[in-house]
Amino acid sequence: MKTTTIAKLLTIITIVAIGYFALPKLIGLEQSVKGFSNFNEVIGIPNNIARYVTGVVELITAILLILSLTRKSEVAHILGYLLLTGTMLGGLLTEYLIRPEPKMMLVYIAIALLIIAVYQLLNTYSLKTVDHE
Asked: Any idea what DSSP says for residue 44?
């Protein structure tokens, strides 16, 4: 799998960002617990279950992206960015449909990571097509 320096840098930024958001959820930091405080009442999923599942999905995303860099695995790269796309779309839905008031900084971060994911997926496809020509 051919990658550019920009693609590698974006992957590193993504790994750091998604890891930064996964760890508080998994270790139960107070701010993270508060962030998931109304899941049960709004959509019927216990707050802690929603928090842990989100944290695990984010951690898996980070691991896949690390593997895509260290093992140069195209499959890990694509799966990681597809998972990131779904996670960020879920995050945006959460901000607007579940939270009483969206936290705009989280919205901006989710949009930025979503743009990176789409860019990386499109970049992977275009590099693959160039390799086959």
From this structure: S
DSSP state for residue 128 in the 8-state scheme: H
If residue 59 lies in a helix (H) or strand (E), which one and from where to where?
helix 47-70
Dump pLDDT digits (tens) for 90-123: 999 999 999 999 999 999 999 999 999 999 999 9
- Residue 32 makes CB contacts below 8 A (sequence gap 6+) with 24, 25, 51, 55
* CA 84 – CA 122 distance, rounded (Å): 14
Q: How far is CA 37 from CA 27, 32, 43, 48, in A?
A: 16, 9, 12, 8
Residue 63: count of CB within 10 angstroms of its CB: 16
Residues 79-91: tens digit of each pLDDT: 999 999 999 999 9
Q: Which residue has the tokens 């790269």?
A: 77
Write down the residue that tokens 């695995």 correspond to: 73
